Amino acid sequence: MTNVIDGNAVADGIRADLEDCVDTLDNAGVTPGLATVLVGDDPASETYVSMKQRDCEEVGMNGIHVELDGDAAPDELYDTIDDLNDDSSVHGYLVQDPVPDQIDYREVIRRIDPAKDVDGFHPENVGRLVAGDARFKPCTPHGVQKLLDAADVDPEGKDVTIVGRSRIVGKPLANLLMQKTDGGNATVTVCHSRTQDLAEKTRRADIVVAAVGAPELVDGSMLSEGTTVIDVGVNRVDADTDEQRSSSSQNSSSSDDTEKGYELVGDVEFDSAKEKASAITPVPGGVGPMTRAMLLYNTVKAASQQEDVDVSL
Ligand code: NDP
C-alpha cells in the first residue's frame, strides 16, 4: 500500500510544537514578529502573503505586512528594508518574489539583515548552509526533509534524484541531503533542463524530488517500484472538464479551484506514480503546507537567537 504523505497533518504537528515555543518566548516577554513585504499586486503573491500572515496569527506570532506600489522606486524598498532591519519587534521578514522589473531581487536579498533572513536566501546564509552550519534552512527544502522524516524515510545511503536546480529548492535541498548530518548522508543527483535521459536518473533513485514547474513531467514509467516521491511543483492548469479524468484522478484540486477555471497539479503525474511509489506527496496538501510551517519555524528560531531565549526547536 502506498503511503500518501499528508503534508497538512505534518505541518499541523510542527505548528503545535511551535506554539509551545511561542509560549516560552511569551513568558520571557517576547512575541516573535514576522514581516512580509509585497511590491505590486500580483494576485498569487497576495494570496501567499495573506496565508503567511494568517499562519502568524494562528500560532500567536506578530504578523506585520508592508505593501508598496508596483511602480515603487528601488530606494523606497531599500528604505523599507532598512527600517525592518532596525525594528527590534521584527525578528524575521521576507520580500515576496517576484518583484517588479525595476527592482533587482538579488540586491534586495543582499540588503536584508542575515539574522532576519528567514527565507535563508542571503548570500551569507547560503554560504553557511553549504558549509554545514546553516542559520536558517530554506523553508521548502527543510519542509521536504521533515516530510521524509515523517514518512520514516531516512535518506542516509540512499540515491536521491532531484529534478530542478533552482536557488530556492533544488540547490539547497541537494546540499541538505548530502550533508553529513541526520536527515542527510544521501548520494544526490541534481537534474535540470540540459540533463540527458532524465528517466534513467529518476529510475535509479530511491527518492525522487520533482521541483521543476512542469505539470506532471514525472510519471510512473520514470520510477522504480518502491520509490519515495516528493512533488514540490505547483502548477495551475486549465480545469479539466473531461469526466474520465475527474472520476479517475485521486488527487485533483478542490471543486472551488475547478470553478475558478483552473486546477492545481504537481510536477508528478500522481496516479501513475502512486502505482510505483512506496510513499508520495499529493498536490495540493504535500510540500506546500510544509513551506509555510517552516517559515514560522525560522521566525521562532530568529526570535530565540535575537532575544537569547532558549526554545526547544
Ligand atoms: P525554477 O523555475 O526556478 O527552476 C526550475 C528548475 O527545473 C530549473 O533548474 C530548470 O532547469 C529545471 N527544468 C525545467 N524544465 C525541465 C525539464 N524538462 N527537465 C528537467 N529539469 C527541468 O522553479 P522553482 O524551483 O522556483 O519551482 C519549481 C516548482 O516548485 C514550481 O512549480 C513552483 O511553483 C514550485 N514551488 C513550490 C513550493 C511549495 O511550497 N510547494 C515552493 C517553491 C516552489 P534549468 O536550471 O536548466 O533552467
TrEMBL record:
Gene Ontology MF terms: methenyltetrahydrofolate cyclohydrolase activity; methylenetetrahydrofolate dehydrogenase (NADP+) activity
Tetrahydrofolate dehydrogenase/cyclohydrolase catalytic domain location: 5-119
SUPFAM superfamilies noted in UniProt: Aminoacid dehydrogenase-like, N-terminal domain, NAD(P)-binding Rossmann-fold domains
UniProt-listed GO biological process terms: L-histidine biosynthetic process; methionine biosynthetic process; purine nucleotide biosynthetic process; tetrahydrofolate interconversion
Keywords, comma-separated and alphabetical: Amino-acid biosynthesis, Histidine biosynthesis, Hydrolase, Methionine biosynthesis, Multifunctional enzyme, NADP, One-carbon metabolism, Oxidoreductase, Purine biosynthesis
Catalytic activity: (6R)-5,10-methenyltetrahydrofolate + H2O = (6R)-10-formyltetrahydrofolate + H(+); (6R)-5,10-methylene-5,6,7,8-tetrahydrofolate + NADP(+) = (6R)-5,10-methenyltetrahydrofolate + NADPH
The organism's place on the tree of life at top rank: Archaea
Stretches with biased composition (Low complexity): 246-255
CDD domains: NAD_bind_m-THF_DH_Cyclohyd
InterPro entries: Aminoacid_DH-like_N_sf (IPR046346), NAD(P)-bd_dom_sf (IPR036291), THF_DH/CycHdrlase (IPR000672), THF_DH/CycHdrlase_cat_dom (IPR020630), THF_DH/CycHdrlase_NAD-bd_dom (IPR020631)
One Pfam family hit: THF_DHG_CYH
Recorded metabolic or biological pathway in which this protein acts: One-carbon metabolism; tetrahydrofolate interconversion
Signal sequence segment: none
Cellular component, GO, one term: cytosol
Record EC number: 1.5.1.5, 3.5.4.9
Annotated NADP(+) binding sites: 164-166, 234
Domain Tetrahydrofolate dehydrogenase/cyclohydrolase NAD(P)-binding residues, every copy: 138-306
Chain's role: Catalyzes the oxidation of 5,10-methylenetetrahydrofolate to 5,10-methenyltetrahydrofolate and then the hydrolysis of 5,10-methenyltetrahydrofolate to 10-formyltetrahydrofolate.
Complex and partners: Homodimer.
Name of the protein in question: Bifunctional protein FolD
Annotated source species: Halococcus morrhuae DSM 1307
Protein encoded by which gene: folD
